[in-house]
Amino acid sequence: MKKIIIGLVVLVVVLVGVVIYFLMDQEVDENVPENTTEQTVVPEVINEEVEEEGPQTTLGTSVEGRPIIAYNYGNGEERLVFVGGIHGGYSWNTVLVAYELMNYLEKNPEVIPDNVRVTVIPVMNPDALAVVVDAEGRFLPEDVSVAKAKTIESRLNANDVDLNRNFDCEWQESGTWQSRTVSGGSSVFSEPESQAFRNFVASSTPAAVVVWYSAAGGVFASSCHNDVSEETGDLTRIFAEASGYKAYEEFDFYEITGDMVNWLAKEKIPAISVLLSNHTNVEWDENRKGIEALLNYYAGNQ
């Protein structure tokens, strides 16, 4: 895979071919090192409007001050949001698939319907990505065994919080990841990264959101104390049929609290999770077909 160079003020994320040696294919119930839930910083909860900056929007900054940047394509009123890297270096291929989408939209702007605006947030958790990738796209630990030992560190933010346990749907201070206990933060939206996304959603009111994770190989609908909405069900089915992934009404491999897409469902925003099949492959062709199908779906809403 060619290098993808996107300038971020502090972090330049370019993952080169050597990344395929970092994480072996892992199942949903894989074994990982124990986690510490101690927080190094407890940030103040901030509510502020995110102002548009044309093709590029800074949503906020991470615990360690790295920018969280959104890239905008098209000018329509129906905003589709795609998010990668909420689990940073642990799911680095979700960052790459987001960059593949950005490259694709830059080269093929005609695929965006007139009534649609696409926003891509490629790195939701930049501090976690920086655990395993430096500014030149090289892995910091050259020894693969050392890199694998950083699995859990490269999933959590700099406060040792799992960001996908920090949102306002069945939030708990202690969450579950597979068979492990992880921190959901000191309170709901305690982390600057989740605050940045919450403020962005409040300011932009997306028509739909797609969040990439790894690894299970499927498209999962969202809900929070309610049934899957009709539109969320449509999105799940459409993306799954086009991509070839299996569709699921819910993620039930283990209990999830404070989940991002379920919070979006609570806010009545259609949202789906797309889980790549493993931690190494980008599966761009499958995802491109799913994305194009969603664009066509919303083109019909004009």
Describe this structure in words.
There is one protein chain. The protein is an alpha/beta fold. The chain has one domain (17-299): Zn peptidases (Aminopeptidase). The protein contains seven helices and ten strands. The protein has an eight-stranded mixed beta sheet, sandwiched between helices. Strands 5-6 form a two-stranded antiparallel ribbon. α5 crosses α7. The chain is globular.
Descriptive key words:
alpha/beta; Aminopeptidase; eight-stranded mixed β-sheet; two-stranded antiparallel sheet; 7 helices; 10 strands; 25% helix
Short description:
The protein is globular.
Task: Calculate the terminal CA-CA distance, rounded to whole Å.
Answer: 37 Å
Looking at the structure, the CATH topology is: Aminopeptidase
Number of domains: 1
Largest sheet: number of strands, sense, barrel closure: 8 strands, mixed
Estimated structural class: alpha/beta
Pick out the low-confidence regions.
1-47, 141-147
β-strand amount? 15-25%
Number of helices: 7
What fraction, in percent, of the residue positions are helical? 25-40%
Q: Globular, elongated, flat, extended or rod-shaped: what is the shape?
A: globular
- Tell how many strands the DSSP assignment holds: 10
Q: What's the overall average pLDDT, rounded?
A: 81
CATH class: Alpha Beta
CATH superfamily: Zn peptidases
Radius of gyration over C-alpha positions, nearest whole angstrom: 18 Å
Strand order of the largest sheet: 1-2-4-3-7-10-8-9
Compressed to H and E, one letter per element, the order equals: EEEHEHHEEHEEHEHEH
Name the CATH architecture.
3-Layer(aba) Sandwich
